[in-house]
């Protein structure tokens, strides 16, 4: 069953239940009103008979009087059936045909020592009668007064039929209205479903779902469009990465193939040429290895695993400096305060390492590298050629290499990884000129606050 059908049926069922409940309450109220008014009239008539001045038989009016043309009762009581009941169970019809039948409960009322009354519906020869019995508490006599209940029964039966018909009509109208409403609601869901099916069948992400409004369906459509947009961007970045990686891999591979061709004539080459060829092969192999490692880092991404936690930037810098000093004798000068950030220590160490490695690569004089941490900002300064103004906006893009550095080894991926790590930590990264020559790379982290862990984990 479709969602549209379920919504229509549910809406119709809800309206039907409400209509039935309202009809039942309305019917009960009308029936109670009619019955109460009738019972009050019958009991008043019984009281008038009981409370009138007594005659020899204990009643104000004789049987002949009650059945004669000169009936002393008020006009509204002259068509009633009246029966006298004693505490011994004897019944005497005072007026009307068919006679009312006394029941055990009526005898109990007659025997009551206190004023008592009750009312009921009695069937006589297939005709319904409403009967009331009352006593003034003399302990010996009660009066039964009844009237034909056929008209009231017909009214109530007709009212019940009207209520049932109205509930049925409302159910039909509600089903139709529910169908229209469900059609309007599910139309956008069907568009969303069609878009999802199209994406799953064709693999194309160039699909847009109309999404308007702030209701649940509108927010779902907006989220779906955002998801498709991000998937499209991710797919484009993936394609660009593959294309750029292919381009970058060709250069060392071409050089390696050239040197391999020379190696085929290795015995014919001068010793100096032999040494140069071997050195070139080693250099190209190292460059190719670095490029593959950086590509693996890019492929792995900077998406963190586990929970973020407070990290002391000084500890991250200390680990990076220790690695550098094991590999090189370059002078690294460190100044750190107690800046604390919320993040992932492994990713932060990768970013700092890439910045320091970049500084080592571009400083031909192997001058000291300054690392400073102050007020949640990490800076790495070198004494290399620096970065020109036109390159600063692009230097953090993947595979981008300034013209002045294209003769140097490298792939242009290291700084893009730094940017990705910074964005993962909601930080800002940029490059500036060092006073006296060189470049300064900055990463400004947000100040740690309560709730920062959850903001990164989400």
Provide a brief overview of the structure.
By secondary structure, the chain is of the alpha+beta class.
Please write out the topology.
Layout: H1 3-51, H2 63-67, E1 81-86, E2 91-95, H3 104-110, E3 116-124, E4 127-135, E5 141-148, H4 150-202, H5 216-263, H6 271-300, E6 309-312, H7 313-327, E7 332-336, E8 340-343, H8 345-362, E9 369-374, E10 377-381, H9 389-392, H10 414-424, E11 428-433, E12 439-444, H11 452-457
Parallel strand pairs: 7-9
Antiparallel strand pairs: 1-2, 1-5, 3-4, 4-5, 6-8, 9-10, 10-12, 11-12
Helix pairs in contact: 1-4, 4-5, 5-6, 7-8, 8-10
User: Roughly what percent helix?
Assistant: 40-55%
Determine Rg (CA atoms, Å): 50 Å
The helix-and-strand class reads: alpha+beta
What gross morphology would you assign?
rod-shaped
Across the major sheet, the strand order is 2-1-5-4-3
Q: Which sequence of SSEs, written as H and E, runs from N to C?
A: HHEEHEEEHHHEHEEHEEHHEEH
Low-pLDDT windows of residues: 450-455
- The structural domain count equals 3
Tell me the major beta sheet: 5 strands, antiparallel
Distance between the termini: 37 Å
Q: Classify the beta-strand content into a percent band.
A: 15-25%
**Helical region count?**
11
Strands, total number: 12
What is the subunit organization of this protein?
Answer: single chain
Q: Average pLDDT, to the nearest integer?
A: 79
């Amino acid at each position: 069953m479709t969602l549209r059908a379920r919504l229509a049926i549910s809406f119709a069922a809800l309206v039907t239940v409400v209509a039935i409940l309202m009809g039942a309450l309305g019917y009960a109220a009308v029936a109670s009103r009619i019955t109460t008014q009738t019972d009050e009239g019958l009991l008043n008539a019984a009281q008038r008979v009981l409370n009138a001045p007594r005659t020899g038989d204990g009643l104000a009016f004789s049987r002949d009087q009650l059945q004669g043309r000169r009936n002393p009762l008020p006009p509204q009581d002259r068509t009633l059936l009246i029966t006298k009941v004693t505490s011994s169970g004897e019944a005497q019809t005072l007026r009307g045909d068919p006679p009312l039948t006394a029941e055990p409960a009526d005898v109990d009322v007659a025997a009551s020592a206190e004023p008592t009354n009750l009312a009921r519906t009695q069937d006589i020869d297939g005709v319904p009668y409403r009967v009331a019995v009352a006593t003034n508490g003399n302990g010996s006599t009660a009066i039964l007064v009844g009237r034909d209940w056929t008209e009231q029964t017909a009214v109530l039966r007709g009212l019940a039929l009207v209520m049932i018909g109205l509930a049925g009509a409302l159910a039909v109208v509600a089903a139709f209205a529910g169908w229209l409403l469900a059609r309007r609601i599910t139309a956008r869901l069907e568009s969303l479903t069609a878009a999802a099916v199209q994406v799953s069948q064709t693999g194309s992400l160039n699909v847009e779902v109309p999404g308007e409004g702030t209701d649940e369906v509108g927010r779902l459509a907006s989220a779906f469009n955002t998801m498709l947009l991000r998937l499209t961007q991710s797919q484009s970045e993936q394609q660009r990465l593959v294309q750029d990686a292919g381009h970058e891999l060709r250069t060392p591979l071409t050089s390696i193939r050239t040197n391999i061709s020379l190696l085929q004539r290795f015995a014919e080459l001068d010793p100096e040429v032999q040494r140069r060829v071997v050195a070139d092969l080693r250099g190209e192999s190292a460059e190719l290895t670095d490029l593959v490692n950086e590509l693996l880092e890019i492929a792995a991404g900077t998406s963190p695993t586990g929970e973020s936690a407070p990290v002391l930037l000084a500890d991250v810098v200390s680990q990076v400096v220790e690695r550098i000093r094991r590999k090189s004798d370059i002078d690294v000068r460190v100044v750190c305060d107690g800046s604390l950030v919320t993040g992932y220590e492994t990713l932060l160490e990768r970013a700092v390492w890439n910045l320091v490695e970049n500084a080592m690569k571009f400083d031909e004089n192997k001058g000291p590298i300054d690392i400073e941490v102050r007020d949640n900002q990490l800076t790495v300064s070198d004494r290399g050629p620096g970065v020109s103004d036109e390159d600063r906006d692009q230097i953090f893009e993947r595979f981008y290499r300034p013209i002045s550095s294209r003769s140097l080894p490298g792939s242009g991926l290291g700084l893009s990884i730094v940017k990705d790590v910074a964005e993962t930590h909601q930080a800002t990264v940029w490059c500036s000129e060092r006073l006296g020559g060189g470049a300064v790379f900055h990463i400004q982290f947000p100040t740690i606050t309560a709730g920062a862990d959850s903001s990164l984990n989400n």
